[in-house]
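Quarterly update from the structural biology core.
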Amino acid sequence: MLNRLWLWFGRWLAKLVLLLVVIGLSAWGIGTVYYSWKFSGPVASEEQIPPGEAALTQGIIEDAIRVVEQHRDNTRVLRDAHAKAHGCIKAQVTVLKNLDGSLRYGVFSERGKTWQAWVRLSNGNAYPQFDRARDARGMALKLLAVPGEKLLSSPAHTTEQDFVMFNHPAFFVRDVAEYKSNFAAQAEGKKALAFFPGWNPQSWEIRHLIIALKTLAPAPQSPVETTYNSIAPFKLGPHNIKFRVIPAPENCPDYALPTPNRDLPNFLRNALYQQLSLDRVPACFALQIQRQNPAHYMPIEDPSVEWDESIAAFETVATIQLPAQDFDSSEQNLFCDNLAFNPWHSLPEHRPIGGINRLRKAVYEAVSVYRQERNRQSATK
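Predicted structure, tokenized:
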């Protein structure tokens, strides 16, 4: 009797598992067909600004200021994102001597030109936490003494060209409307609801949740051992592009970083200090661009879509070197905290495009002004 019962249960369980496999494979097949259809070209090669974007942007600015106030320390107002820096490093950015003529625009117009620059390396969170926590990692690059009219008229940034990146090739929201919903939920401490704005499953953003989880990656061995991406698109003269910075150790002396102690709260800063300040070994990167092919699904207005490298390969336009240096002083850390990076600190040849970049223009400027004003008030008390 017991044997027959177990046999019946085994057959029932096998049928259930088979049914679940069939349902899973069917869902995967339907999803593949749907996304192949949805993510197919051609796409627009010009910006398409939706109605109501300005009002949504103002709401996001208010939420961003709430976040910086929530995470301020006892004396200083921190950034609304990438609050914890591993260091601000002096750098040289050198345009390739043999750069293709079709890419010679803006700061890349003169072959062999070397720009002096600052590089800020950071964690992505709005408040400082241990480096071993899963997080995005950021690189902000500021070229100095760049002549020419800039897109923003701020007197403090008239000679700067900024490039802002983080270490994942896609963003976890598609547009300003979704960013408003997502960021408002996070500002209210409802992170679990950021990708589930309502009971209707059609409003759920499962794909974007997966991108967000992939973005929150384990820390690298060192901030100079990972790739940093622009995420959103930009102009390069007549081209629509994305850009990235990749490690290029072949351009520097051989170096093996000692195994870091990941239990230390600031081991990424320690790794940077070990290489540049103690061992006096430079770190090297390559700056690359990827041109949009609008015949394929490479949208301007949706940075959650990674542009296909098999269709549009990345091309190196410049090299970056972080020379050996001493950077971890209280004076330089304060200088680093006060540096403002904005992709709109830019020549027209590198103009940011797309909804997320239009949002950045308003939010970065408003939060930077608010943060620096509040910090000046605190310093005078």
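Residues 252 and 317 are 18 Å apart (CA to CA).
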